[in-house]
Amino acid sequence: MHSYLFQFAQVHHEFRLPELSSVAELHGFSLSLPPQPEHRNPTRPFMVIGLEDEEHARILARRCILIKSVFVFYGQGFNYDELHAANRTLQGEWSRFTHDTSFRFLVTAYNHKIPQTRQREVIESFSYMGFLGKIDLKNPDIILTCFEEYDDCRGTTREKHEGDGHFREVFFGRLLEEGSARLLIAKFDVKKRNYYGNTSMESEISLLMANQTLAAPGKLLYDPFMGTGSMAYPTAHFGAMVFGSDIDGRQMRGKVPGVIRAATQYGVASRILGLSTFDVTRNPWRCGELFDAIVTDPPYGVRAGAKRLGRKKELTPTQRDLDDQPYIPPTRPYELSHLAADLVILARYLLKPGGRLVFFLPTVTEEYEEVDVSTMVCEGMDVIANSLQDFGSWGRRVSRFSFLHPLAN
Amino acid sequence: MVRLITHNLLACHVKGCTSNNFPLEFKDAKLELREAEYNPEFIRGFLPKIEWKALVDTARQLGDTSLPLEQPEMLDDEFLKNLHHVLLEIHVEEGSMICPNCKHDYPISNGIPNMLLAEHEIG
Predict the structure, then answer these.
(1) Looking at domain B2-121, does it have CATH number 2.60.120.260?
(2) For this protein, what is the EC number (chain A) (predicted)?
(3) Which end of chain A is more exposed for a tag (fewer CB within 10 A), N or C?
(4) What is the phi/psi pair of residue A231, to 5°?
C-alpha cells in the first residue's frame, strides 16, 4: 500500500468521494481514505489516499473529472519540521532519484502567493535530500512539488504577503500524472455542441454523473428522459451503449436527429443503441433486468416540466367532433415527487442486479432532510450517494441508487 | 435506427394487450446497414435477454439468414460476429411495427419508433 497525494478542483465538493469510489469500484480496486475526518474533508483541495498500485492512481487521474493532479506522497505537516520529518521517513521513496535524475522543484500555495524569497528558502530547506541531478525547468525527469494550503480569506483586505507562512497544512510529493479527464469538460461543452436545448445539462455535472454510473465498454445504459441527450454523450464516451427514450419526439426528429448529430460530433454515434418516443410510465419494455444503469436528468420546473400521457380534463363533445388528424396523444403534467418515486420503482424492474440509478433531483436546501430521498427507497434499492450542487437557496441533488437484490419474479 | 436489438426488447403495451403481443411485425421496412463497433463482451452479456425465435424470424423476414434456428451452445467467434451484425448493424429506418394481437401500428420515421399510445389505449 502506497500513499498518493491528490489535488482536486475546488468545485462540486460533494461529488468528489462518490466519483472516486465509483471509478475504483469500476476498475476493481480499493482506496483507503485518511482516518481523520479533517483530512478527508472534501472542501479542502488536497487529500492523501492509500492505493495498492501506482497504476490505480493513474487510472483515477485519467477518469475522475475532479482530479487536477496526482503525486507520489512524500510528506505532510502543520509546519515544515513535521513535513521534513515525514519526508525523511519515506526516504526509500525518493532516494533512487538523488544521483543523476534531472528535476524541477515547485513551491506553491492554495489561496495564497508565496513571495519569491521565501520560495527559495523553502527549496533550500530540502537540501538534506541531496539531489545531485541537473535542474531542468523545461523537461525535467521528475517534478517535486511543495503545496502550502491556506484558509480562504476572500473578502478581507490584506497587505501584500500578509499571513505568509501561516498555512493550515503543507504537503510534498513527486508529480505522477496530471488529471486528464478534466479536459473532457471542454470537449463536451454545451456551447460547442452541434445540438442542444435550453435545459441541456452542463458538461461537468453530466460527466460526474456518467462516472457514477460505472459506464464502460460492454455496458448497456438507459436514459428515460433523453431530451437533447446530455447524459448520453459522456456515458457513451466512456464506452457504454445508451438507449434513450422521451415522451417528446421533437428532439429526436429530423432527417438526421439532433441527438445523432451531436453524438457524431463526439464520435459515439454507433453507441447510441436506439431512440424511441414513449412515455416511460407506459413503457413497451418486454422484460426487466435489461440495463446496467439508468442515468437521467428528469425534467422539472414550470417551463420545461415533465409530462405524461393523459388529458388534463375531458373533451367537450364539440371538441371531440373536431378533426384533429394526425392524432397527437394528449399529455398532462407529471408531478416531480411522483416522477422520482416512479423512477426508483421502474429502476428496480429494469436494472440488472447491482445496477445503478443516477438522477438529478431539485430540492430546496433549507427544507431538505435526508428523508426526502430515503422516502423513495423501495425494497431492494439502496441510496449509495447523494450529492448536492448548491445554488444558494435551492440546489440539485444527484442521487445514486444501487439495485441490490433481483426481484423474485 | 430501429436495430433488431431494440426490436427484440419492445412489446405492444396497449391496455389489455397482454398475450401474443410480441414480436411486433415490421411492415414496409426500409433497411439500412451501418457498421458498428464489435464488442464480443456486450453480445455475450446480452445473449440471455434475447428471445431467440423472435430474433431469427425477424432477421429472416428482413432477408438475413446468417443465424441458426436453434441458439447454439458453443459461442464461437463466427457466430458472435453474425449475431453482432444482426443485432446492431441492421437498421430499420422507415416503415412501421404492427402488434400481432391488437394490430396497433407503431410508425417508424427517420429511424425513431413512435411508441406513444392514444388516450383510449392507456389504463
Answers:
(1) no
(2) 2.1.1.214
(3) C
(4) -85, -20
DSSP letters spanning A289-325: --EEEEEE----SSTT--EEES-SSPPPHHHHHS--P
ipTM of model over 0.90: yes
A188-403: CATH, from 3.10.20.740, 3.40.50.1820, 3.40.50.150, 3.30.1240.10: 3.40.50.150
- Nearest neighbour of B49 by CB, restricted to A218, A247, A290: A290
For A254: left if phi > 0, alpha if psi spans -120 to 50, otherwise beta; the answer is: left
DSSP A41-67: -TTSSEEEEEES-HHHHHHHHHH-TTE
**Burial A24-51, CB ≥16 within 10 A → b, else e:** bebeeeebeeeeeeeeeebebbbbbbeb
Rounded CA gap, B38 and B47, in Å? 15
Summarised one tens digit per residue, pLDDT across range A150-187 is 998 788 887 888 888 899 999 999 999 999 999 999 99
pTM value? 0.89
- Using CB atoms, pick whichever of A254, A290, A327 lies closest to residue B110: A254
Give the three cell numbers for residue A68.
Answer: 487536477
DSSP letters spanning B37-103: ---HHHHHHHGGG--HHHHHHHHHHTT---S-SSPPSS--HHHHHHHHIIIIIEEEEEEEEE-TTT-
pLDDT digits (tens, 9 = 90+) for B36-54: 999 999 999 999 999 999 9
Identify the residue with better confidence: A286 or A360: A286
- B10 with A286: Cβ contact below 8 A: yes
3-class SS at A149? strand
User: Measured between alpha carbons, how far is A53 from A57 in angstroms, rounded to an integer?
Assistant: 7
The CB density around residue B51, as the number of other CB atoms within 10 Å, is 16
Min CA distance, B15 vs chain A (Å)? 10
- What is the identity of the amino acid at A132? L
* Pairwise CB contact (< 8 Å): B3 & A271: no
Helices (H) and strands (E) in chain A, counts: 12, 16
Q: What residues pair up with B119 in beta bridges, in sequence order?
A: none
Q: List, in order, residues 6 or more apart from A409 with CB less than 8 Å away.
A: none
Euclidean distance between CA atoms A236 and A242, whole angstroms: 6
Of B111, B113, B119, the CB nearest to A329: B119
